[in-house]
Design goal:
homohexamer, 5 strands, alpha/beta
Amino acid sequence: MFKAVFPGSFDPPTLGHMNIIERASFLFDELVVIIAENRQKRYFFSAQERLDMMQELVKPWKNVSAIIWDHLIVDYMKQENIRLMVRGVRGMDDFSYEFELSMMNKALYPHIETLFMTTDPKYFVLRSSSIRELASFHGDVSAMVPPLVAEALHRKNP
Amino acid sequence: MFKAVFPGSFDPPTLGHMNIIERASFLFDELVVIIAENRQKRYFFSAQERLDMMQELVKPWKNVSAIIWDHLIVDYMKQENIRLMVRGVRGMDDFSYEFELSMMNKALYPHIETLFMTTDPKYFVLRSSSIRELASFHGDVSAMVPPLVAEALHRKNP
Amino acid sequence: MFKAVFPGSFDPPTLGHMNIIERASFLFDELVVIIAENRQKRYFFSAQERLDMMQELVKPWKNVSAIIWDHLIVDYMKQENIRLMVRGVRGMDDFSYEFELSMMNKALYPHIETLFMTTDPKYFVLRSSSIRELASFHGDVSAMVPPLVAEALHRKNP
Amino acid sequence: MFKAVFPGSFDPPTLGHMNIIERASFLFDELVVIIAENRQKRYFFSAQERLDMMQELVKPWKNVSAIIWDHLIVDYMKQENIRLMVRGVRGMDDFSYEFELSMMNKALYPHIETLFMTTDPKYFVLRSSSIRELASFHGDVSAMVPPLVAEALHRKNP
Amino acid sequence: MFKAVFPGSFDPPTLGHMNIIERASFLFDELVVIIAENRQKRYFFSAQERLDMMQELVKPWKNVSAIIWDHLIVDYMKQENIRLMVRGVRGMDDFSYEFELSMMNKALYPHIETLFMTTDPKYFVLRSSSIRELASFHGDVSAMVPPLVAEALHRKNP
Amino acid sequence: MFKAVFPGSFDPPTLGHMNIIERASFLFDELVVIIAENRQKRYFFSAQERLDMMQELVKPWKNVSAIIWDHLIVDYMKQENIRLMVRGVRGMDDFSYEFELSMMNKALYPHIETLFMTTDPKYFVLRSSSIRELASFHGDVSAMVPPLVAEALHRKNP
């Protein structure tokens, strides 16, 4: 029985995130999408908004759930006895950061295994921060995020 | 009749920027330097100050003009029917960011071609943010920016 | 009247190369594809074979031609009074090499401008060496190279 | 029932490889270590020697086996109906190559998932080629490879 | 008589910093640890707190001292007639930034030599910002910073 | 009394190498340039030719000498009780390789300190392999190597 977590800010969720979730849902018995909430950071969408969007988006997969977590990710994994963490990487820049993060996590919880999955090339441009900026200019984000996220972005950028 | 844009923050313009502008002025019939103004970002020099400096600096080249633009760069290019965007890259770090940006722009406007030009090695250190920091310590920036920019920096760092 | 060269080994030409050629054919009045022949290197296809394939492939564009050149690329550019060199980059690794090469070329011929164009993400995997290796295992290369190249690869890997 | 492959040259196997194998043996129901044999490449140890070493080394894990394969890795995966490939990455350089390889493999077999695991920092220096070179100078490789590999290297470098 | 500086924010000092200081103390006759204070940046620990911690930490090495400096580092080096600057690099990301910084410094003071030392792999994860974030979640930082820093972090994150 | 080694293939020595040697000669009491000779590699200039060139080139600095060494560099350092190794890095690619090499060397000889010096931007293009290739095409290498090396290259490429 393999359980894995897929943590992130998801501010907002992108088609790239959903691509990783879909593929990971086939690899593990259970996948928990963790909406990270760090009280020292500022988000565009609140934790509750991000959770609501994600819970709607993961409905197609019965073995995928979503939660908010405002402590260390490794603390959730220890508490739930989960050893696997999935991370999507779009290229070198992502990997450099993820590589360091995975070593930090392993130092905190040696039983963790971080599994990196590469994002499909067609989703390379889907960085959440770029999408937020694009939406602030009323650019067309419909090919980058699920419809319900596109609507949420439009509501926030009237 | 080839027209190209050269967008950037130019906060402030550096000798590296001017090197790209000079070389690009020979490659295209017309070159528009776009002073990007993003209302969600904070600049050291105002858009008008950056435009005034740039317009003074590009006077030597008859086919180069400068404008302020506060929407998506691709929107200007669509409106003016310009397909070419010039970007200067100083090394790996720049390229990584520029590469992603070019793919985002192409997703928004498939007719765009981003042409990357490499900065001459002697201009490698001329990052606008570093020059601003240097000027804040009253360091000597005279070898890094045109004289009128050096003066503007000194006036802002009394 | 802007002329540009697009040099490479083209051993063999890939759909990624053809994508760059097609896009560059719209940017310049004339584009010369240079089949580089370095007598100290070993090629899978002979220079004549690579030229034959390329000449067939560029027929759709009236302003594109192909030649073999076995000296320094900058010597051809000097001789033909061409200042523009186009290079396609697929990502960080390519760029690192190309960046150095462009500086070397500029040291040899200061009037050169190397213009980098990014390859479309769907062509990222089309490295000639990988395609040759794939063909040697009788893998399916039909989505990676033009049909006439696929046939040539099959003939060489019976 | 999750089966995964862990392909490589293993010329020779290092402690870094064994670290990945040990950790992956806990993640999958079955793990097949594939000794890649490419007839166009030259190896220091023959395929049979590499297989003999690996089979001895994986004895502690009941769900791990080793085979020689001289075609495309994806052909083995298709034939055995295995969708998961494990790859160890030690840093940026490895990842750059692996990233491209994973996209090539996905182009050949869309059902493949490549899962990247990061090597523990203490195994960063264990590149097989460096170990071979070190052994050729009679350097001490005992902290880098399993004892039976160290002996094999000494026998080959009398 | 070789004197060197080792500048940084040290917000807070990590075991990685101390590893560099210890090794550098053997290489130079005198080593000055410079606590950089930039009035336009925000720090977690005040300059005085960082100095107090560092002065306590460097007591074991008689030839190492610590100071606060709120101007350009090169100004201190010019004033004290010191030509050597030591920087620790943990990997590619660090190096990219450090490389550019070293060129900037050399442009400001051509006599400077920046000597890069690589951090031991076991200290790779010790980025000050990550440690501050970890401490804010009450994570265990005892293996990452000296005991007196761990205590200071706990006092600041009650 | 600080002694350092500066190892390399020096096939041939470039102005970039000489720039590092000149600067390092001021940092250490004694600097030994080690001409690495690996019997499993092929060189353009023989070890004796490379030594003859280097010995001529380092004559201006009384504290610099040159030797041939065909074992592990760390063996020479142990034998001579030298702990410092100088390496020049021109950018990210160099650093990636050098970083790994320094960790390998430290694993073999924990007392080693590798000090990285950055090459001046004007010497970025001076890779020995590129210079050899350029010389094979009778390109002008006079701005890249010392005169005696330029002559040696011309003699070898009649």
